[in-house]
Amino acid sequence: MATAGGKIPSPGYEGKTPPMPITPAVMEFQAHSAPLGIHFYRGKAFPEPYRSGAFVARHGSWNRSTPVGYDVLFLQFDAKGNPVKQQPFITGWLSGNGAWGRPVDIKELPDGSLLISDDFAGVIYRVTYTGRR
C-alpha cells in the first residue's frame, strides 16, 4: 500500500526485494505531474549550467484536488551523467484561478533557443537567453 510521500510498491514484492536485474529510479517526478516532453540540451545559447542538462515539460494533473505540474523543469547531471538535481525553469501556467497553459514538448532550434508547445493555449513559445553568459 502506498503512503503519502512514500514510494509506490512493486506489486507482489511488498516488504521483499524484487529479483535482479532491476534498475531503481535515478530521479523521480511527482505523481500526476505528467512529464510528457524531455529534451537533452546540446546548444550553447544558454549558460554553462544548462549545457548537457535536460528540460522537462510537465503537462500537469487534471484529476487531483491539489494540481501539480504545469511547468518546465531543468535536470542537472554530474560529470558521469547521473541526474543530481531538478529545479523549476519556467513556471506560471498554473494560478489560483486554474491553468492557462499546459506544456507538452520541447525542441531545440539550431541557434540553441527552445520551442515549447502548449496544447491548452494552442501556442508554441520560443525561449531564448538574453542575459550574461
Automatic annotation (TrEMBL):
Cross-referenced SUPFAM superfamilies: Soluble quinoprotein glucose dehydrogenase (SSF50952)
Signal sequence, start to end: none
One Pfam family matching this protein: TrAA12
InterPro entries per record: 6-blade_b-propeller_TolB-like, Beta-prop_PDH, Quinoprot_gluc/sorb_DH_b-prop
Domain Pyrroloquinoline quinone-dependent pyranose dehydrogenase beta-propeller: 23-87
UniProt protein name: Pyrroloquinoline quinone-dependent pyranose dehydrogenase beta-propeller domain-containing protein
Source species of the chain: Thermus islandicus
